[in-house]
Amino acid sequence: MWSRLGAFSWVCFMAEIFRQRIIKLLKRDDYEPVKLSQLARALGVSSEDYPEFKLAFDQLRQAGHVVIGAKNMVSLPSLAGQIVGTFRANPKGFGFVTPLEPNSHGDLFIPPDATADAMTGDVVVAKVKRKGKRGRQMRYSGEVIEVLERAQNRFVGTLMKHPEAWLVQPDGSSFFEQIVVDDVGVKGAKQKDKVVVEILSYPTEKYLARGVIIEVLGKAGRYESEIRSIIRQHHLPSGFNNECLEQAKQAVGVFNPDEANNRENITDKVIITIDPEDAKDFDDAINLERDSKGNWILGVHIADVSFFVSADSALDNEARTRGNSVYLPGKTLPMLPEILSNGICSLQPDQPRFVKSVYLTYDQQGSVVSRRFANSVMKSRQRLTYEQAERTLKGHTKEVKPEVIELLKNMEALSRVIEKRRAKNGMLHLDLSETEIVMDGSGQVVDAHPADDSYPHTIIEMFMVEANEAVASLLDRLDVAFMRRVHPEPDAFSMRDLAKVVRAFGFSLPRNPDRFAIQDLLAAVKGADFSMAVNLAVLRSFEKAQYAPLHIGHYALASTCYCHFTSPIRRYADLLVHRVLECYLRGRMDQAKQLAAAQDLVQIGKHVTFTEQRAEDAEKELTTVLILQMLSKRIGDELDCIVTGLAGFGVFVQSRKYGIEGLIQMDDLGPDRWKYDKRTQRMVGQRSGCSVCLGQAMKVYIVSVNVPARQLNVAPVKPLLEAASRAQCTPRKKKSRKTSVTKRSRGKRR
To answer: For residue 657, what is the DSSP state?
Structure first.
């Protein structure tokens, strides 16, 4: 019964994945109708997956979301007289409606006088109006005639005093217009306070929205106020309820490492943790030994959170709701109460801790020859930071124990062998650095720089990937449903777009590039000014990784079977995997199947994928806000940037140092009529012939900063036309205009 139910669930989920991919492809501006078989090839559908693909297509056709036209060509349906969709406002007053049921026209333009009181994210009904033909294409516009569902009725913003009224300027880009508020004194709000406002009446063509302040978060610009703002804006969880806290206390009370009878005692082994300097939740530790044959045995030891958090308990339900910990600059919102996450679950030095251990034995080529799994009790010999580990590997060994020094050197040696093997198998590594901000004692950002990416990061990454893959392979062989980390292969259209982008840099990709062609491309651009632009283009061509109980592998890691196992303190998906592994270690696989049947892994996977993205968005936005606040005091300062984006309204550049993106308005490019040439990926001056290209290095200065709107406006330090006359914006030498990245011998890779 369970296997039939499980198989049915998987088929339904896979069909849903294909429905999303079919619609995404058909919505593309450059999509030309093709037959069903060609559509399957474009999406990379294998013969094994074709039945689910066909099921997905038939479901879309029956629902009227796709049509088969003349000569059996597949396309989206034409635009109807009315559409229901999601409204997206523009600061200039107009907007667009993205149909809930995609059509061949795409998004519908809504003029400024036809938006009614719709706000970004609202679900609306729009009347479609024909505007006549331009060439062969019919032009349309629309009018919002009804708001079916409001996206939100609460906004975070800054309170300002206007001669005629108190106004709140909302943060972010979801709502641009100011909100009129009354009774400011009721909540004790003052000018320039950060507040939460609830909408009472929505904006119209003539009147601003009106609302009431329901919470005062503190003075705008202060660190604590901005933290609270991001938490409210992204609907992030904060404190834990009493039931969760009491359960956590009880878990601490019953923890007795001396009664670990069913666990292997490895407290005498040399085991270390390596984490960021400000980390407190240490959930992974490493040891490395040789067996009698001289093979390396890697031990990856992961905090046994499942011992303390039982399934369907109050604590488990809260962890599932949160999905993951959220790491904001200077503050962590943990998935579990800190008494667990930073306490008895954290693998602190010299403290006995319960762990789940993965032992991997390697031959000289770095291939796994055997795997073993166990419940253990361990003690960390020393806690290292990544910077400390890097200094130690370079010979600066102060305050590092001799046995730990030896272990680190061995870890580096094994990691390089594993990395070489995984690269040979097609693993992809993107060279995109994160930004680390520097704060003073008051929480103000005083500097920012690219985050440390020294080799110890790669050591831990390699070992964690190996452990994750080993657990996934075990559970896959046991034929039990579990939460996987999946990353679909990119479709043919995305690869075609990537080929167009890299062609502008003088590179060519094969018609159907595989991982090795992308590897060669990334290697070829390494160290070049345009490396960032190419790496971003590769990233954008990929699907996003997600959580699902579906066996479709992980494309970027070149792994046929993968899951997340190594961070159960901060990721709920890992905790689910731990519980299945526990059933295996106890010899109770029947219980594992019952556990899987009792959970809706598909829905949980969707939820934790959402909470993961939400956490990333919140961290990125707060980092942007804090850096913009710093730069707002440095108007006129110069920034060393790279061109990362081109649009019809300007050029986007990214600061090498701060990692933040700024916009050069068209008027600031120089005295010319500028036009974006999508084919060549250049912004071209129509009179001068000067061009700005993706990946071009450019020095700019800060023109203005709009913190509430998250906008940085910059302009070139040197007049663009003058700079272009000396160097025609060409990122590569003329003698190597076209370079293939697919000429290396395939035999060498084997």
So the answer is: T
**CB of 170 closer than 8 Å to CB of 176:** yes
The pTM is what?
Answer: 0.86
Per-residue pLDDT of 431-461, as tens digits, reads: 988 899 998 877 788 999 999 999 999 999 9
Tokens standing for 49? 């997956």
Beta strands in 229-334 (DSSP E): 264-265, 272-275, 284-290, 296-303, 326-328, 331-333
Nearest-angstrom CA–CA distance, 207 and 202 = 9
DSSP string over 321-369? HH-B-EEETTEEE-SS-HHIIIIITS--BT--EEEEEEEEEE-TTS-EE
H/E segment holding residue 371: strand 368-378
- Selection from 174, 169, 156, 168 nearest residue 231 by Cα: 156
Sequence letter at residue 289: E
**DSSP designation for 129:** E
Distance (Å, whole) CA 308 – CA 55: 42
Question: Which residues on neighbouring strands pair with residue 736, listed in sequence order?
Answer: none
For residue 93, the tally of other CB atoms under 10 A from its CB is 14
User: Is residue 398 exposed (0-12), middle (13-18) or buried (19+ Cβ within 10 Å)?
Assistant: exposed
Cα–Cα distance between 514 and 501 in angstroms, integer?
17
- For 636, the 3-state DSSP assignment is coil
Q: How many whole angstroms from its chain centre is CA 16?
A: 21
Beta partners for residue 218, in sequence order: 194
Structure-token pair, residue 91 = 């600061």
Pairing mode of beta strands 95-99, 82-89? antiparallel
- Closest alpha carbon to 502 in 532, 477, 537, 461: 537
Q: Which distant-in-sequence residues (6+ apart) come within 8 Å of 747 by Cβ? A: none
User: Phi-psi region for residue 149, left (φ > 0), alpha (ψ -120 to 50) or beta?
Assistant: beta
Cα atoms found within 13 Å of the Cα of residue 230, Cβ hemisphere only: 28
Closest residue by Cα to residue 565 from 550, 547, 542, 539: 547
Tokens representing 426? 């097609």
The H-assigned helical ranges of 558-638 are 572-585, 589-598, 601-631
- List pLDDT tens digits, range 471-522: 999 999 998 999 999 999 998 888 988 998 898 888 999 988 999 999 999 9
d(CA 67, CA 246) in angstroms, rounded, equals 57
Tokens found for residue 68: 């088969």
Question: Rounded CA gap, 298 and 293, in Å?
Answer: 14
Q: Report how far residue 629's alpha carbon sits from residue 618's, in angstroms, rounded to the nearest whole number.
A: 16
Tokens in use for 362? 């390697």
Neighbours of 259 (CB within 10 A): 10
